[in-house]
Write a structure and sequence with these properties.
By secondary structure, the protein is an alpha/beta fold. The chain contains seven helices and five strands, in the order βαβαβαβαβααα. Helix 4 links the parallel strand 4 and strand 5.
């Protein structure tokens, strides 16, 4: 999404993360939040990752979402260089199902926090970025309140349908 002022940077360690990470972009688009999406690895392109993070604030970035699997150091490396919020998305892995990614992302040392969503939780990462930005943007806060009201409405409608049909018909 190309706009004058970027607000969020979505960084993934590999383009193979894109099918999951796109969910964060979809959320940001729903809320009309400008973002960039970049592939940069903490291990394969550490200098590029460092340069990206060093220039982020100058480019208007307020929140960085970082997705990585396996050793999953990307969010932590970014958080060590970026003074504003970093949201980590631990990616599912074939060997440990993403538990390795989750532990690598969430177990940061004191002073270097990474807000971490669930494994493959890109949609929640996008929503969390919106929530962070809404703390200083009343118009965005109003959109977020409406979004959450619609979630509640949808749940109520599903419950009514389940009660009306019974579970056997509901799941058909």
């Amino acid at each position: 999404m190309k706009e004058k002022t970027l607000r969020v940077s979505i960084v993934m360690g590999s383009d193979s993360d894109l099918p999951v990470v796109k969910e964060a972009a979809i959320v940001l688009e729903e809320f009309s939040i400008s973002y960039e999406m970049i592939v940069s690895s903490a291990h394969r392109s550490p200098d590029d990752t460092y340069k990206l993070v060093q220039s982020a604030r100058k480019r208007g970035i307020s929140v960085i979402i970082a997705a990585a699997g396996g050793a999953a150091h990307l969010a932590g490396v970014i958080a060590s260089h970026f003074p504003l919020p970093v949201i980590g998305i631990p990616m599912a892995t074939p060997h440990l199902g993403g538990a390795d990614s989750l532990y690598s992302t969430v177990q940061m040392p004191p002073g270097v926090p990474v807000a971490t969503v669930g494994i493959n939780g890109a949609k929640n990462a996008g929503i969390l970025a919106v929530e962070i930005l809404a703390t200083s943007d009343k118009a965005l806060e109003k959109k977020l309140v409406l979004y959450k009201e619609n979630l509640a409405k949808s749940t109520r409608e599903k419950s009514k349908k389940l009660q009306l049909l019974g579970y056997k018909e509901y799941i058909k």
